[in-house]
């Protein structure tokens, strides 16, 4: 859902199927409340999250929702799919149809996936200029060497998109495992970066986005709503 800003008079005219003149009358008579306050100004800008009451009836009560899901392998990061179960199928919230995914994971990647109906929040998390880190634990087929650290930090040129990847931090955890921090999300980025070393990725798991870590109490396939604190403090 987009944050959808619009003018109050346009919204009411459309919603009630009345003329703008009649809207002015309604406002003058104090029949409209925006976020609990009597609205008088036809130019008032509302968003899709403004609470609008007309003549005592709630006509828009959209509240933002923020969900953390522990995505399993084999479930697709999409809202609809002909072949596979989708991440939406795993959710059990009445508002789940309103949600969109904040930064997809591949079919065979597990871990932290965020869903929301607040597009301003999701844009802020996905725009590379905001440098919100996405942290992954990667298991590889072949042994790692220190050469990987510099190659990831220097960026790699992807001819197909004609881009060089932004500096990424690689930390070697063990012979076959590394932690990788990205600030962008290119198509199959991690697999393609290890592909440069002809080192296939055997398992990929996202453990954190910004300051938000995947809740380790959350079993694979389960989800929960974020706390207000998590929503506001996710940026690095
Ligand atoms: N990089 C990948 O290759 N796949 C993902 O799912 C995420 C990052």
Quick recap of the structure?
The protein is of the alpha+beta class. The chain contains 6 helices and 17 strands.
Structural account:
The protein contains six helices and 17 strands. Helices cover 19% and strands 30% of the residues. The strands form four sheets. Strands 7, 8, 9, 10, 13, 14, 15, 16 and 17 form a nine-stranded mixed sheet that branches. The chain is elongated, with a radius of gyration of 23 Å. α1 (8-16) crosses α2. The chain starts with 5 loop residues before the first strand and ends with a helix. The mean pLDDT is 93. The protein has two domains: 6-60, Roll (Structural Genomics Hypothetical 15.5 Kd Protein In mrcA-pckA Intergenic Region, Chain A); 66-233, Pseudouridine synthase (2-Layer Sandwich). The chain has helices at residues 8-16, 20-28, 119-126, 147-154, 189-195, 228-232; strands at 6-7, 32-34, 37-38, 45-46, 52-54, 57-60, 66-71, 100-102, 109-116, 134-140, 157-158, 163-164, 169-174, 177-182, 201-209, 212-213, 223-225. With 236 residues, the chain is of the alpha+beta class. The site of uracil has 8 residues, from α5.
Task: Give keywords.
Structural Genomics Hypothetical 15.5 Kd Protein In mrcA-pckA Intergenic Region, Chain A, single chain, elongated, Pseudouridine synthase, four-stranded antiparallel sheet, nine-stranded mixed sheet, 19% helix, 236 residues
What is the name of the CATH class of the largest domain?
Alpha Beta
Number of domains: 2
Task: Give the C-alpha Rg.
Answer: 23 Å
How far the N terminus sits from the C terminus, by CA atoms, comes to 25 Å
* Relative helix content: 10-25%
How many helical stretches? 6
The SSE string, one letter per element, is: EHHEEEEEEEEHEHEEEEHEEEH
The proportion of strand residues reads 25-35%
Instruction: Report the bound ligands by name, code or SMILES.
Output: uracil
CATH topology of the largest domain: Pseudouridine synthase
Identify low-pLDDT runs. Answer: none
CATH architecture of the largest domain: 2-Layer Sandwich
Output mean pLDDT: 93
Give the number of DSSP strands.
17
The coarse silhouette is elongated
Give a short account of the largest sheet: 9 strands, mixed
What class, by secondary structure content?
Answer: alpha+beta
**Looking at this structure, what is the CATH superfamily of the largest domain?**
Pseudouridine synthase
């Amino acid at each position: 859902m987009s944050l959808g800003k619009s003018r109050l008079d346009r919204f009411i005219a459309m919603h009630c199927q009345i003329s703008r003149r009649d809207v002015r009358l309604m406002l003058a008579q104090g029949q409209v409340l925006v976020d609990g306050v009597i609205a008088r100004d036809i130019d008032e800008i509302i968003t899709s999250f403004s609470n609008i009451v007309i003549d005592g009836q709630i006509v828009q009560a959209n509240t933002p929702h923020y969900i953390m899901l522990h995505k399993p392998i084999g479930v697709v990061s999409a809202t609809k799919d002909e072949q596979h179960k989708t991440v939406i199928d795993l959710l059990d919230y009445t508002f789940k149809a309103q949600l969109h995914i904040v930064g997809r994971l591949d079919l065979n990647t597990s871990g932290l996936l965020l869903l929301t109906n607040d597009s301003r929040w999701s844009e802020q998390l996905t725009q590379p200029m905001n440098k919100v880190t996405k942290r992954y634990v990667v298991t590889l087929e072949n042994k790692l060497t220190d050469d990987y650290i510099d190659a990831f930090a220097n960026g790699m040129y992807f001819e197909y998109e004609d881009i060089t990847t932004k500096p990424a931090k690689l930390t070697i955890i063990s012979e076959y495992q590394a932690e990788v921090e990205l600030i962008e999300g290119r198509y199959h980025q991690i697999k393609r970066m290890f592909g440069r070393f002809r080192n296939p990725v055997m398992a990929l798991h996202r453990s954190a986005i910004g300051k938000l870590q995947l809740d380790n109490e959350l079993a694979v396939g389960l989800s929960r709503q974020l706390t207000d604190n998590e929503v506001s403090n996710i940026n690095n």
